[in-house]
Task: inverse folding
């Protein structure tokens, strides 16, 4: 039986001050009635069953995750001692799943994406899981709707065939976030898909690639796997995990392997990577403003004004500005600079006196 693995350990720094170290992006409810995590878990558990849906999280998020997902079996939480980026995260979960559930296909799903047309999403994921059973590395690519610089891309090559009416393609290459000029070229060329960070493989398949391309990581993971289920499990994890290299699955593996299968995803997908991205999914008033909370606005246009405090946020004569007011902080930024919020947060994290405002 295939398993679903939800990666839920990220920080979402670009959504500060709403997103924080202990209450990150995927726990937020910015769109609809569910948090990003609750929606991801609902979709995955519907596909794979509750007993075959696993979460990999930072240990410090356990209480918050359990409070949002009380139905999640406690044994299905895989807790990292600390965040080490996606390659160690996926590798750690792979040895854990292999020990618990065997070596069937494992679908890796980010916890913080918006998915609509969920019936089609389920069909695409099922096709990817079937391909993964053959020992292949499979990735879901999303057809671009604009020249987006905030996402990675993958270039598709020859068509390999169809599975249940869903086309399969070779992946020629992965490209990290491009310049606007390059993103425009990719969009117009038509052979590029957004890298959604959704993958399917068996635990052994991805671990074999780690042995080849990230041997230091692989060796540490095997030490952890050998200790799983023994009295030394927690000691070995605490001892080994901090020494693992910090690297993403894209840089560490996907950009290096030569045989990756792409399944184009033709369902609605979005990654709310910064505050400006809310424009794509939330309704606006006549002046183009997105307003949430207690806000009084005058003569302002194309702004995002969100107030989470029990006091009035006043905005007069503003244009193309984002203001986010929360208990932990106030963010004021021009829309065009929204991606730079991450840089601000990284600087704040270096200051011991200011860290508390990011917890």
Result:
């Amino acid at each position: 039986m295939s398993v679903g693995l939800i990666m839920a350990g990220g920080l979402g720094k670009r959504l500060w001050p709403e997103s924080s170290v202990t209450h990150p992006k995927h726990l937020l409810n910015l769109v609809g009635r569910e948090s990003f995590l609750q929606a991801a878990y609902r979709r995955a558990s519907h596909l794979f069953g509750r007993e075959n849906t696993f979460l990999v999280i930072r240990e410090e998020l356990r209480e918050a995750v359990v409070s949002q997902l009380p139905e999640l079996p406690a044994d299905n939480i895989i807790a990292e001692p600390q965040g080490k980026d996606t390659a160690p995260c996926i590798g750690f979960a792979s040895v854990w799943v292999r020990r618990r559930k065997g070596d069937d296909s494992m679908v890796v799903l980010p916890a913080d994406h918006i998915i609509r047309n969920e019936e089609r999403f389920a069909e695409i994921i099922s096709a990817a899981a079937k391909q993964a059973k053959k020992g292949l590395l499979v990735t879901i690519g999303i057809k671009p709707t604009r020249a987006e610089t905030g996402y990675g891309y993958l270039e598709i090559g020859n068509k390999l065939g169809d599975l249940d009416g869903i086309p399969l393609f070779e992946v020629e290459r992965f490209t990290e976030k491009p310049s606007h000029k390059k993103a425009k070229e990719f969009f117009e060329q038509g052979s590029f898909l957004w890298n959604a960070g959704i993958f399917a493989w068996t635990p052994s398949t991805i671990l074999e690639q780690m042995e080849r391309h990230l041997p230091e990581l692989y060796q540490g993971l095997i030490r952890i796997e050998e200790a799983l289920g023994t009295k030394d499990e927690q000691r070995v994890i605490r001892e080994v995990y901090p020494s693992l290299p910090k690297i993403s699955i894209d840089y560490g593996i996907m950009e290096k392997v030569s045989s990756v299968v792409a399944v184009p995803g033709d369902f609605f997908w979005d990654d709310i990577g910064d505050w400006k991205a809310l424009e794509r999914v939330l309704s606006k008033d006549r002046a183009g403003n997105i307003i949430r909370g207690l806000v009084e606005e005058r003569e302002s246009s194309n702004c995002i004004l969100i107030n989470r405090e029990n006091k009035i946020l006043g905005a007069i004569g503003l244009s193309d500005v984002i203001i986010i007011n929360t208990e932990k902080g106030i963010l004021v930024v021009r829309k065009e600079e929204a991606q730079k919020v991450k840089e601000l947060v990284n600087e704040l994290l270096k200051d011991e006196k200011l860290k508390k405002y990011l917890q």
Summary: The longest strand covers residues 153-163.
